[in-house]
Design brief:
alpha/beta, Rossmann fold, 5-stranded parallel beta sheet, 11 helices, 13 strands, 34% helix, disordered N terminus
């Protein structure tokens, strides 16, 4: 009998088994990516398990592919070298029109977003196809209002394409604003002292600024590396007690397949040796069996260091509630965690999932990810049309 596939106890975004037990991190981008690499290199300088490779190229991007085509270059880069993680930052040179045929498309216009988004998507897909964990670093606020508007337009493209194509988007916007949310060239550095963080052009950073910029990436990387370490530490083999703990099932000694009956217990052997200990009649045996079926079975589980004993959930109840039995691979997509840096050093964390999306739960064709309600509201920030009579319906007179 073929064994059912089992989902791992902990799944990490980063491959838990890098070559030579060392992660090779490639940093890609323009001049911002170049500076980000210098900050990351110093942030992880004492960590011997990571190696940061600088492959950024100043004065490049996705708007002018005629001067440098990143999608063509990254294909050759992945053929010659092996990486497990990619950190990306573009945008310092992309606030310019894109030529399409004889027309020049204005920055931020819908045709511009479509072409720019296609190039970003192709770039992410190439990296993900090579099994790299991809972290796309968003642009910060800029000094010029026009440059800030262009940066926001590019961030919308980066965020959407990263979300759809399995990359992590790291928001840095609020990390370089003042208390009123405006651009500020000065701010607290990694020591907590107020220092100059931005360069004279209002786009790039000072070295202190790049160290702070790298800190946004460092938080995400260290969290995912910790998850990868936990997954790596799960024993892949061991005695039956260890396997039972990892796989979440009861393993009876002497039985290779848990679905097959095990050897007779001592009570069963005593009952066979002493007929008086056996049930007096089939009717009595059926009555005792019915009582056992009605009584809730108990199962023991642990949450942290606390052991819990609770009734086992019947498989028929699991099916009725749409729950997958333990030990089977789940087909539902993972929840997406979204973080946003707030003022005073606080971080807002939200977890969204498409489990409640009706386009997934019904038998109708699934909507594209960018068209689903939870993506429009929680990712893009759009406001859905209110329903008549609902709390957000301000029509007058009331419907």
């Amino acid at each position: 009998m073929a064994q059912q596939a089992t989902s791992p106890v902990q799944r990490s975004y980063i491959n838990p088994f890098p070559n030579g037990d060392r992660y090779r991190v490639v940093v890609l981008g323009d001049s911002l990516g170049d500076g980000l690499w210098s900050g990351l290199y110093r942030a992880f300088e004492e960590d011997a398990t990571l190696e940061f490779m600088q492959r950024a190229k100043p004065a490049t991007g996705f708007a002018r592919t005629d001067s440098y085509d990143w999608n063509a270059e990254v294909a050759g880069l992945l053929k010659t070298e092996t990486y497990q993680i990619a950190v990306i930052m573009f945008g310092a040179n992309d606030a310019q029109p894109i030529k399409s045929g004889k027309d020049w498309l204005k920055v931020g216009s819908e045709p511009w977003r479509e072409i720019y988004g296609q190039r970003v998507e192709a770039f992410i897909k190439k990296l993900r196809a090579a099994n790299l964990a991809v972290y796309w670093v968003g642009l910060p606020i800029m000094r010029s209002p026009g440059q800030s508007s262009d940066a926001e337009a590019m961030n919308e493209v980066f965020r959407e394409e990263a979300f759809i194509n399995g990359a992590r988007f790291i928001d840095t916007w609020n990390g370089f604003t003042d208390e009123a949310g405006r651009y500020s060239a000065y701010g607290p550095d990694m020591t907590g002292q107020v220092k100059r963080l931005r360069a004279d052009d209002g786009v790039l950073f000072t070295m202190r600024g790049y160290l702070k910029l790298a800190h946004f990436v460092e938080k995400e990387l260290r969290r995912d590396l910790s998850l990868a370490k936990l997954e790596r530490n799960i024993p892949l083999a061991g005695n039956e007690d260890e396997q039972a703990k990892v796989m979440g099932r009861e393993v009876v000694p002497g039985r290779s397949d848990p679905s097959q009956p095990g050897p007779p217990t001592q009570d069963q052997q005593d009952a066979a040796a002493d007929p008086a200990a056996a049930p007096a009649s089939p009717e009595q045996a059926q009555g005792e069996q019915a009582q056992d079926e009605q009584a809730p079975q108990l199962q023991q589980s642990s949450v942290g260091e606390v052991n819990l004993v609770r009734p086992a959930i019947d498989q028929s109840l699991q099916a009725a509630q749409g729950l997958a039995p333990q030990g089977t691979a789940s087909s539902m997509p993972e929840a997406e965690m979204i973080t946003s840096e707030l003022a005073n050093g606080l971080t807002a964390v939200a977890t969204i999932s498409s489990v409640t999306d009706l386009s997934l739960a019904s038998s109708k064709p699934r909507l594209p990810l960018s068209q689903r309600p939870y993506y429009k509201v929680l990712i893009k920030g759009e406001q859905l049309k209110p329903k008549t009579g609902r709390g957000d319906d301000f029509a007058w007179p009331p419907g």
